[in-house]
Design a protein that fits this description.
This protein has about 210 residues and is an alpha+beta fold. The chain has helices spanning about 10-25, 40-45, 65-75, 85-115, 125-140, 155-170, 180-190, 190-200, and strands at about 1-5, 25-30, 55-60, 60-65. Bound molecules: glutathione.
Amino acid sequence: MYKLLGRSTSGNVQKVLFMLEETGASYERQDYGRQFENTATAEYKALNPTSKVPTLVDGETVIWESNTILRYLAAKDAPTLNGSTPAEKTEVERWMDFLLAAVNPGYLAAFKGAKLTPEEQTAEYKEAVKDLAAQLKIIDGHLAGKSFFALGRLTIADIANAPILKRCIDFKIDRPSLPNLEAWVAAMASRAAFATATGAAAPKAA
Ligand SMILES: N[C@@H](CCC(=O)N[C@@H](CS)C(=O)NCC(=O)O)C(=O)O
C-alpha cells in the first residue's frame, strides 16, 4: 500500500492521485502542506527536505518531485504509461519537463495573480501571463490531431499535465484560442480517475 503525503488541493498531488486512480493501485493519502502546517517538521524534512508536497512512501522507498513519482509508479505498476524504448521515453518525458521548465513559471504567476484587479497587476505579472499564453500555444499546436501528448495513448505526459493545464485554461487571462488543448483537457476531465483526483464531478457524456 502506497502512502501519499499531500493536500488534495495541490496540483502536484493531484497528478499523483490521477496516476494512482488510473492504475488502480492501493494507496492512502494523508493531509500535508499549507493549512496543515506539518511539512516544516524534522520528521517530514527527513522524508522530503524541500518541505513541499507530494511525497510518496513505498515501504522503505521515499520519493518526492511529482514527475519523478509518476515515472516510478509507471515503471513499477504500469509500464505502458511510459515509452518502452529510450526514444519513446523521450517523447513522453519531454512534455513533463516542458511542464516544469516552461509552463510552471507562468502558471504559478497566473495562479497567484488570479485575484488581482487590473490596477494591481504588475508589469512582471503581465509578462509572466504573456509567456504562459505562448507556452500554451506551443502545446495547442502539438496536440493538433492528437488525443494524447505522446505515443497515441495515455501516458504519464498526460497525467502530469492534466491537473495543471486544466487550471491554465480555466484562468481568466488574456490568451489566444486553444481549441486542441481545450479538447484534450475536456477528454482528460471526462476520465473517472481525473475526476476523483481533482475532486471534480466528471462531465456527463454527451
Ligand atoms: N516540483 C515540485 C513542486 C512541489 C510544490 O511546489 N508543491 C506545492 C503544492 S503544488 C507545495 O508544497 N506548496 C506548499 C504547501 O502546500 O505547503 C513537484 O512537482 O513535486
